[in-house]
Amino acid sequence: MSIRQTEGRGRFDSILDTVGDTPVVKINRIAPEHVTVYVKFEAFNPLGSVKDRLALNIIEAAERSGALKPGQTVVEATSGNTGIGLAMVCAAKGYPLVCVMADSFSVERRKLMRFLGAKVVLTPRAEKAYGMMVKLRELVEEHGWFNAAQFETSANADIHENTTAREIIGDFAGERLDYFVTGYGTGGTFSGVGRVLRKERPDTKIILTEPANAALVGSGTPQERNPDNTPSSGHPAWEPHPIQGWTPDIIPHVLQEGLDKGFYDELLPVAGPDGIAWSKRLAAEEGIFTGISGGSTFAISMQVAETAPEGSVILCMLPDTGERYLSTPLFDGIAEEMTEEEIAISRSTPSNQM
Ligand code: PMP
User: Fold this and answer.
1) What is d(CA 210, CA 204) in angstroms, rounded to the nearest whole number?
2) Nearest ligand 1 atom, CA 317
3) pLDDT digits 0-9 by tens, 272-302
4) What architecture is the 15-44+164-331 domain classified under in CATH?
5) Ligand 1 geometric centre to CA of 246 (Å)
6) What CATH architecture applies to the domain 51-147?
7) Closest to 42 in 3D by CA, of 148, 150, 188
8) Does position 255 have pLDDT exceeding 90, yes or no?
9) Residue 2: per-residue pLDDT
10) What pLDDT digit, counting tens, does each position of 294-310 carry?
11) Among this protein's residues, is 40 annotated catalytic?
């Protein structure tokens, strides 16, 4: 292995032209030997998450349709990554942006959005994602802002059909791909990639995962909706879980498409602490630095691997970078000051500068 010798990735006219085309990376040390496990690593997007893709598409689709007027304010409810992606797109194109986010999501997320020039309106965590959506609707009605509507818009799954899925098809052309493993937030990744895999790789098993203590899909309880497909209440099966970006307290319309079309072969719940543990192992034993949702998807990929036949190939989505979680339980136990062991290393040489 060495640094790739190329003529460069290219020159780009805008940061927005660098969205997508993320690498698929092999797991070399922590996967069982009878299978091959790859991760599709979305941290390579310019703002570090899979949501850069739909942020760009929501804005450009609205520009094309005329739904978004030059200089009009954009508003969205977000667990953070969509807001950060939208903040990049809006900064690059000159639209003001207001993000509505529950105060349970990491402080890093708020600061990143503000650093990129967006305004962040916080809602109480007790009101969950549904509360964010109520505030979003009020802001749209009050100010006539453009609602990015990531949970309902067709621009969400479409971009995964047209980019994420195409990249996977290209990277596994002529090769085995036995399992594709993903969680869901809006469900855009699942529904968009599902459209393509079901058609072009019908033998690939799609594994959907969700938090064990917020198993909305597993509960079998349908989501109540308004005529515009927005939820009309929070889902009763939801409980607070540590997998930020996954499973709001609603079954989004975008996810519903994939559920209705039977895009998953198996639905496997994952416990948050397992996701955290696997995120740490990916970082410390593979050098792959992803967030809690990535660790959780990987936890389920390892579970699938246990019983997968010899030679199986598994592809696991890693939605974002671990750097978005410095203030969260992912970093519990990571010291700021020198540890005993580090002090001992420091004292092992004559210059004692402590
Ligand atoms: N992981 C993280 C950290 C996210 O922010 C999101 C999106 N909210 C997802 C996973 C899920 O992606 P999707 O919305 O495409 O289901």
Assistant:
1) 20
2) 10
3) 999 999 999 999 999 999 999 999 999 999 9
4) 3-Layer(aba) Sandwich (3.40)
5) 6
6) 3-Layer(aba) Sandwich (3.40)
7) 188
8) yes
9) 73
10) 999 999 999 999 999 99
11) no
Atom index in ligand 1 nearest the CA of residue 81 equals 5
- What is the atom index within ligand 1 of the atom nearest the CA of 292? 3
Helix (H, G, I), strand (E, B) or coil at 318: strand
Distance CA 75, CA 119 (A): 9
Distance, in Å, from the CA atom of 182 to the CA atom of 201, rounded to the nearest integer, reads 16
Parallel, antiparallel, or unpaired: how do β-strands 35-41 and 24-26 relate? antiparallel
Same fold flag, 15-44+164-331 and 51-147: yes
Query: Where does ligand 1 bind, in terms of residues with CB under 6 Å?
Result: 49-51, 79, 81, 183-190, 244-246, 291, 293, 319-320
CB count in 10 Å sphere of residue 332: 7
Strand partners, 328: none
Q: Are 72 and 56 in contact (CB under 8 A)?
A: no
pLDDT grade for 324, boundaries at 50, 70 and 90:
very high
- The answer to whether residue 280 is catalytic is no
* pLDDT reading at 354 higher than 80: no
With H, G, I as helix, E, B as strand and everything else as coil, classify residue 172: coil
Read off the pTM.
0.97
Residue that the structure tokens 């453009």 belong to = 146
